[in-house]
C-alpha cells in the first residue's frame, strides 16, 4: 500500500521484497491490489504517460529483409541506415526465423517466470557467476523507485560450454535455439548498419561485436496501479545493438523528437535498436535513444526477450572508428575499455541513464 508517513523506511520494504525471492510475480500471486511504496514513482516521472495530442503518433520503420541477397541489397542498407540515424529503432520482418521459434522462445521465458514460487526462488540472485540469474530490477538497491517487472538473465558470450548446465531445464533448449538465431540475424544486421556507415560489410563483426551477448527475459505481470509506476524506466542501452523479441501485448515506447512513440507489435517482427556504444563508434551518425515500458494494466502478462550485442574483448579500447574521423568531423568521444564502459553503466540507477555524455570530448 502507498504510505504517506514521513517516517517511512524504504530499506525495510526493500529488504522484505528482496528476501522473498519471488519478485513482482510473487506480489501478484499474493493478491496485492495496491503496489508497495517502493514501486511508486515520483509524479514528474509519470506526468507524460498519457498522450497529450490527438494527432496520430508516428510509428517506427518496419523493414522487410526478404530481399537481402538480391538486387534490393543497396536499398536495404539505405533503409536500415536511415532508421538508425533518425529513430535508433526499427522492426524487421521476413528475417528467416520461423514463427514457431519466436513463439517457442516467448513461451519458454514465460514458463520460467510462471513456475511455482519455490522453483523460481532457487535461482534468485544478484550474482552472475554461473551465467544465469533471476531477479527483480537490476538496479533495485540503487534506484529511487522500482519498476513492475522480473527478469531472467543469461550470459551467452563469450562462449562457455558449462553455461547450459546452469540454465533451467524449463527454458534451456529454447534459449539455446534463440541464441543461434540471434547470432545469425545479429550478424546480418551488423553488416547492414556497417555498410550504412560506409564501412566494409563485416567490419563490425571483426571487432568481436557478436561475442559478448547477454540475454534478458523480462516478465511484466498485471499491475493493479499502472498509473503509479513503470514496467521499465526511461534509459538507453549501453551496447552496440539490441535484438528484441516482444509478444503481442505492447507497452514499449521510444522517445522521438521529444515525444513518446509506441513500438506497436508487428506479427512475426523482431525489433532492433542502436545502443550507446554504436552511437559512439559511429561518431554520432547513428542514434541511441531513450526508451521505456509502461506498467502492464492487462490481466495477461507481457513477455519480451532482449539480446544485447556487446564486444567480447572487454579490455580493448573503443571509441569512434578511425574511418569515421574526418578533418571536418573530428572524434566526438574519447576512447575507453568496454569494462570501464559497463562499470560506469552499473554504478548508477537505470533512470534516463546514458553513457554518451560521460565520454564526450
TrEMBL record:
The keyword NAD does not apply. GO terms for molecular function: dioxygenase activity; metal ion binding. InterPro entries: DIOX_N (IPR026992), IPNS-like_FE2OG_OXY (IPR044861), IPNS-like_sf (IPR027443), Oxoglu/Fe-dep_dioxygenase_dom (IPR005123). It holds the Pfam family 2OG-FeII_Oxy. Residues 205-311 form the Fe2OG dioxygenase domain. Keywords: Dioxygenase, Iron, Metal-binding, Oxidoreductase. The keyword Metal-binding applies. It comes from the Eukaryota. Belongs to the iron/ascorbate-dependent oxidoreductase family. This is Oxoglutarate/iron-dependent dioxygenase. It comes from Parasponia andersonii (Sponia andersonii).
Amino acid at each position: 500500500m502507498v504510505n504517506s508517513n514521513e517516517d517511512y523506511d524504504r530499506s525495510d520494504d526493500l529488504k522484505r521484497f528482496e528476501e522473498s525471492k519471488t519478485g513482482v510475480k510473487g506480489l501478484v500471486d499474493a493478491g496485492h491490489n495496491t503496489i508497495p511504496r517502493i514501486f511508486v514513482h515520483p509524479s514528474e516521472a509519470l506526468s507524460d504517460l498519457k498522450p497529450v495530442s490527438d494527432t496520430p503518433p508516428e510509428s517506427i520503420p518496419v523493414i522487410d529483409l526478404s530481399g537481402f541477397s538480391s538486387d534490393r541489397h543497396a536499398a536495404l542498407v539505405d533503409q536500415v541506415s536511415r532508421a538508425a540515424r533518425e529513430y535508433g529503432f526499427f522492426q524487421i520482418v521476413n528475417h528467416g526465423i520461423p514463427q514457431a521459434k519466436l513463439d517457442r522462445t516467448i513461451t519458454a521465458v514465460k514458463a520460467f517466470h510462471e513456475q511455482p514460487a519455490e522453483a523460481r526462488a532457487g535461482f534468485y540472485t544478484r550474482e552472475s557467476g554461473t551465467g544465469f540469474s533471476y531477479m527483480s530490477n537490476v538496479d533495485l538497491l540503487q534506484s529511487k523507485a522500482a519498476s513492475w517487472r522480473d527478469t531472467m538473465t543469461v550470459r551467452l558470450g563469450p562462449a562457455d560450454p558449462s553455461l547450459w548446465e546452469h540454465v533451467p531445464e524449463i527454458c534451456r533448449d529454447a534459449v539455446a535455439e534463440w541464441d543461434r538465431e540471434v547470432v545469425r540475424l545479429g550478424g546480418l544486421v551488423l553488416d547492414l548498419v556497417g555498410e550504412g556507415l560506409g564501412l566494409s560489410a563485416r567490419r563490425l563483426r571483426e571487432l568481436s561485436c557478436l561475442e559478448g551477448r547477454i540475454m534478458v527475459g523480462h516478465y511484466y505481470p498485471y499491475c493493479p496501479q499502472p498509473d503509479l509506476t513503470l514496467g521499465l524506466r526511461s534509459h538507453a542501452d549501453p551496447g552496440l545493438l539490441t535484438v528484441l523479441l516482444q509478444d503481442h501485448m505492447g507497452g514499449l515506447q521510444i522517445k522521438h523528437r521529444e515525444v513518446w512513440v509506441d513500438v506497436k507489435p508487428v506479427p512475426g517482427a523482431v525489433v532492433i535498436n542502436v545502443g550507446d556504444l554504436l552511437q559512439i563508434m559511429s561518431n554520432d551518425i547513428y542514434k541511441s535513444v531513450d526508451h521505456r515500458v509502461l506498467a502492464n494494466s492487462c490481466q495477461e502478462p507481457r513477455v519480451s526477450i532482449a539480446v544485447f550485442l556487446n564486444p567480447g574483448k572487454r579490455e580493448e579500447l573503443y571509441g569512434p572508428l578511425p574511418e569515421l574521423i574526418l578533418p571536418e568531423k573530428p572524434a566526438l568521444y574519447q576512447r575507453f575499455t568496454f569494462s570501464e564502459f559497463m562499470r560506469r553503466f552499473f554504478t548508477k540507477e537505470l533512470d534516463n541513464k546514458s553513457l554518451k555524455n560521460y565520454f564526450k570530448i
